[in-house]
Amino acid sequence: MPPPDPSLSPPFAFPPMLPYQTLIALDRHATIPLTQQITAAFIALINQGVLPARAKLPGSRHLAAQLAVSRQTVVVAFEDLVAQGWIEQLPSKAATVGAQPPIPVPEPLLEGPASQLAPRAGFTFAPRPAVGPGVRPTAPSLLLGGGSPDARLVPLEALARNYRAASRRALRQPQLLGYSAPEGVLRLRQQLARYLHDTRGVPAGPDDIFVTRGSTMAIHLLTQLLVQPGEVVAVAARSYGEADAIFRHHGAQLLRVPLDAHGLDTDALAQLCQQQRVRLVYVTPHHHYPTTVALSAARRVHLLQLAAQHDFVVLEDDYDFDYHYDGAPILPLASADRSGRVLYVGSLSKVLAPAYRIGYIVAPSDVLAALAPIRVLLDQLGDPLLELAVAELFADGGMQHHLQRSCKTYHERRDVFCEALHQHLAPWFSFTPPAGGLALWGVFAAGIDLPMLAAACARQGLSIGEGQPYRLPTDQQAHLRLGFAAHTADELRRSVHILEMCLRQLW
User: Under a CB-based contact definition with an 8 Å cutoff, are residues 331 and 200 in contact?
Assistant: First the structure.
């Protein structure tokens, strides 16, 4: 005789009385509402078999008394459980556990499943060297890093409003939530084309722009397309560490070019090009990373001439063009490129905040067409809704207003920081105030041990980095890049006070 179907059985009277006050632990100080806590607790009891199928549940008044909550709280929790299919409740009847859980309980693959993941891999691999210090689990209260914008200035309300509008638009156009073009949303590319033309003289149309998740992805995609293992990539003697790491990752040989107060030494580059074949030259001409110096107009023209003469590609990383404080900035190389040899990379992460991963490439259309299949393998597409939200920020003037406000703020912070450094650190630290950007570059007096100073500052809640990514074998003194944009005037003065205190204690 077959066993009875449990779905046809009458509700169990068991369990007649469970100690729900001990089975359901409520945290009355948590941000999660009590109704949700009760709902989650009952789901757990059902999954664990404490409450079997068809078991009767206590009445709302009785359970409310056991848990010391209002009856309405229990009623709302039970309604949620009914809506999810965990329990059944008929009028004038006691609630019961459903005959089948709405989500099937998976069967374990092995008896006695592991309680946690293995702490180490069961295979060998070669870890990649770290590019920089990375993100520490416990961030210091003050961080004078390489130069980040102040996230407190981001127009969050406007971005959130635009994102909601894009989401509502997706209700009418569901294709916005599907796979889209790898080069990015057309609306954003149109706005970027106008923005680049108006602010930098770059004559790009929407079809000349490829949207990425930040400038790092842009450099990675271009390097993968253009550089073969063993080919030479020329970079400045001190250069952007992440870009260097990308070039090495793709098998490039790095050729270091001397750097001075006028930027990359193009005469030295010309001599190097006579000695070996250079495939690509990476530059940050507006404010060189890390030294902040600008590549002179004469050297920019010379670099374009060398590119044509020696048949190399120029990768122009213009990460902070929008922040210039003294005099008129020199327009990018891309604004004067007539031969299609300059690939222009920019980012909105420095304009907004690092969390907003939107970068872009300006390049000839055949280059962008070749990038599309590479991008699809790495990252199927960007974030169409975010791209639409940012596009509207450009279209309604919100981005321009934000740039004007943030540029004024960062200019004031630069002045405050430079004044405090001159006043308090002159015996130990010398620098030239940068004409723009989010950071300054300086050199410590002979005998200053930068790792020791960094450790002392860290104990006081200030992170300055150890300068290792920028160090050259020939350096006799420690150099350091200090970001000022992310902190208020008071925070910057406090940072300088900590630096002065630590320097006086150690030297």
Answer: yes
- Interatomic CA distance for residues 337 and 301, integer angstroms: 10
Distance of CA 241 to the CA centre of its chain: 17
Residue type present at position 103:
I
- What distance in Å separates the CA atoms of residue 132 and residue 148, rounded to the nearest whole number? 15
pTM here is 0.81
> For 49, phi and psi rounded to 5 degrees?
85, 0
Backbone angles phi, psi at 56, to 5 degrees: -75, 145
Q: What angle do CA 344, 296, 433 make, to 5 degrees?
A: 100
Average pLDDT score over residue span 73-79: 94
Tokens matching residue 106: 């998976």
Taking a C-beta distance cutoff of 8 angstroms, is the pair 225, 367 a contact?
yes
Contact in structure between 499 and 462 (CB atoms under 8 Å): yes
What does the alpha-carbon distance between residue 7 and residue 10 come to, in Å, rounded to a whole number?
8
Here the tokens at position 17 are 């009385």
Q: For 396-413, write each residue's pLDDT tens digit.
A: 999 999 999 999 999 999
Q: Residues with Cβ < 8 Å from 367, sequence gap 6 or more?
A: 225, 343
Instruction: Return the CATH class of domain 20-97.
Output: mainly alpha
- Going by the DSSP 8-state scheme, the letter that residue 127 receives in this structure is P
pLDDT in tens, 246-255: 999 999 999 9
Q: For residue 295, with 0-12 CB atoms within 10 Å meaning exposed, 13-18 middle and 19 or more buried, which class applies?
A: buried
Give the DSSP per-residue string, 380-431: S---HHHHHHHHHHHHTTHHHHHHHHHHHHHHHHHHHHHHHHHHHHTTTEEE
* CATH among 3.40.50.2000, 3.40.190.10, 2.115.10.20, 3.90.1150.10 for 142-148+402-506: 3.90.1150.10
Q: What is the pLDDT of residues 168-179, one digit of tens each?
A: 998 888 888 888
- DSSP reduced 3-state for 96: strand
Could you tell me the two tokens for 436?
A: 């723009």
What integer pLDDT is reported at residue 132 of this predicted model? 54
Token output for 358? 């939107």
Q: Show me where the domains of the chain are located.
A: 20-97, 142-148+402-506, 155-396
Q: How far is CA 256 from the centre of its chain?
A: 28
174 residue type, one letter? P
Q: What count of residues does the chain have?
A: 507
CATH class of 155-396: alpha beta
For 372, other C-beta atoms within 10 Å of its C-beta total 13
In 10 A of CB 378, how many CB atoms? 14
